[in-house]
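Re: that backbone. Tokens:
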């Protein structure tokens, strides 16, 4: 009898060992507002009694796609979740986290229902203002879930966020001789990084970052220098970067980022970022290198000569891709104190520029930066482009034709201020399209400047645009939110009425902001001659002060 008992005991131990090595493979499917979401690579989980790994179907077969993110859970008194990303078959990163795992506090209800034949209980929690409901089994000695939420409750078969997105188990399969950790053995041997570093590395791996400028001074000085890739002109107030850009995947989204601080100039200044086309006989680069007289001149009978504003047979104006306005002295003048006011350390400008992808992708380009100022310290800026792959994004317009740009970026080299709207008819540009443009838009940016109390900077003025004689746009461009940016303006003047200068509403700009373009639908334009006319009732001069308007227009089409 003793021998039989020993044999039975050994058999039971072996059975327990075999059971411990048995894993479950759980496949989940997604539903959005009750409708099944079709997927080719659904969430899949491998779990046994002491460990779990969350991935996708391709994570566990020969069709693995990179980057491949996995979550690995080990059961213990202090459970640990390891977050792993495999960038390719060689490179990967891992971070261990035992803190956030226990942050979600669940309210357990008495509700039950059956999923795949298993009787499930319900738990509810809130994460970042999202209501999360999970249906789980707690009597299988198994911790598994489609996300890390609810793992501590047991086996989660259904996860629902805000009653409209559901992840639900569709299949449970037994798997023998599979340990979840076999898919990350290399990573488990690595030195983990902290969770914040991990998230930063993963975030930055999702897009391409292209540096344009780093801590570049834009100031007014007779002593300025250039190098092989960064040129300075107009007494140092214009910087041009020559750079070869990579090819961008179709559907990518492009963003331009500019950071700016004062390096001595305390005033709000016009800033612009632009592409200099070099396919025509004359370009803005000719004016920058050889002098303003190289650029074609436009006159409207008022005696002024406006250089380089408009498209001609031989000249293509600069393509404006961002217009921004510096605040009053951010960073340099942060020593100015106001009660209960904390100043920002820098101004950040970020704008999508996807519509210009065809001018940038796989091209060597000249990208210019201008901040109008007469200060020896001037401003310091950094700039970069980020490229974000996005299969679901709208394919950008692939035809770009700049028509006009009256922002006088060569102001400090003698370029005339754009006061040409003193003519009631504004200006008219005739241009020729060499081919048909479909679904055409005019990208139109406008800001009013100059004068004091009665100047166009502070007086609303209607902008009207005509294409081929037909009115296509009429609007008063005006910003009333300038007071929202007070913390960027330490050197802004304060008046007897309790307002700061930076609080005042302006003609489509505020100190410390970007001016967004308007996209004006033009329909289909046939190849051949066309006209664009812009009319603005510009204010009269007041003594030595005068009003003017910076407008730029680029035709976009397919």
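Recovered sequence:
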């Amino acid at each position: 009898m003793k021998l039989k008992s020993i044999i039975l005991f050994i058999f039971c131990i072996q059975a327990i060992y075999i059971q411990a090595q048995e894993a479950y493979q759980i496949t989940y499917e997604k539903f959005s507002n009750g409708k099944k979401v079709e997927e080719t690579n659904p969430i899949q989980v491998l779990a046994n009694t002491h460990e779990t790994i969350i991935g996708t179907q391709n994570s566990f077969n020969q069709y693995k796609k990179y980057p491949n993110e996995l979550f690995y859970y080990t059961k213990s008194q202090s459970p640990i979740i390891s977050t792993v990303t495999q960038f390719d078959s060689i490179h990967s990163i891992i971070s261990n986290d035992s803190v956030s795992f226990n942050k979600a506090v669940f309210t357990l209800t008495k509700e039950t229902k059956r999923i795949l034949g298993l009787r499930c209980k319900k738990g509810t929690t809130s994460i970042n203002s999202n209501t999360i409901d999970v249906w789980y089994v707690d009597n299988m000695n198994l911790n598994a879930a489609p996300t890390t939420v609810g793992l501590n409750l047991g086996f989660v078969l259904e996860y629902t966020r805000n009653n409209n997105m559901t992840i639900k188990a569709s299949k449970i399969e037994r798997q023998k001789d599979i340990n979840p950790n076999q898919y990350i053995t290399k990573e488990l041997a690595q030195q983990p990084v902290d969770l914040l570093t991990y998230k930063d590395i993963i975030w930055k791996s999702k897009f391409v970052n292209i540096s344009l400028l780093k801590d570049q001074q834009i100031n007014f000085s007779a002593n300025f220098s250039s190098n092989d890739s960064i040129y300075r002109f107009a007494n140092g107030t214009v910087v041009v970067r020559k750079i070869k850009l990579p090819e961008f995947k179709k559907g990518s989204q492009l963003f331009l980022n500019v950071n700016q601080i004062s390096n001595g100039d305390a005033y709000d200044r016009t800033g612009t970022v632009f592409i200099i086309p070099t396919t025509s006989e004359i370009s803005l680069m000719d004016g920058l290198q050889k002098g303003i007289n190289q650029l074609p001149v436009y006159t409207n009978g008022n005696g002024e000569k406006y250089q380089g504003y408009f498209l001609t047979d031989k000249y293509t104006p600069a393509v404006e891709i961002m217009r921004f306005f510096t605040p009053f002295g951010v960073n340099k003048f942060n020593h100015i104190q106001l009660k209960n006011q904390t100043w920002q350390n820098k101004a950040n400008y970020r704008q999508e520029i996807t519509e210009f992808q065809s001018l940038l992708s796989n091209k060597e380009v000249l990208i210019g930066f201008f901040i109008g100022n007469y200060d020896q310290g001037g401003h310091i800026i950094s700039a970069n482009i980020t490229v974000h792959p996005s299969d679901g994004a709208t394919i950008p317009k692939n035809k770009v034709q700049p028509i006009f740009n009256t922002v006088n970026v060569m102001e400090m080299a003698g370029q005339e201020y754009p006061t040409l709207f003193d003519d009631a008819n504004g200006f008219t540009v005739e241009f020729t399209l060499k081919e048909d443009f479909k679904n055409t838009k005019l990208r139109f940016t406008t800001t009013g400047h100059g004068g004091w109390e009665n100047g166009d900077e502070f007086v609303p003025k209607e902008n009207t645009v005509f294409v081929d004689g037909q009115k296509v746009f009429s609007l008063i461009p005006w910003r009333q939110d300038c007071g929202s940016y007070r913390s960027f303006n330490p050197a802004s003047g304060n008046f007897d009425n309790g307002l700061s200068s930076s609080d005042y509403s302006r003609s489509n700009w505020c100190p410390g902001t970007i001016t967004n373009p308007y996209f004006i639908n033009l329909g289909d334009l046939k190849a051949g001659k066309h006209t664009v006319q812009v009319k603005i009732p510009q204010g009269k001069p007041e003594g030595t002060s005068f009003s003017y308007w910076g407008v730029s227009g680029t035709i976009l089409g397919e």
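Residues 291 and 413 are 8 Å apart (CA to CA). The mean pLDDT is 93.
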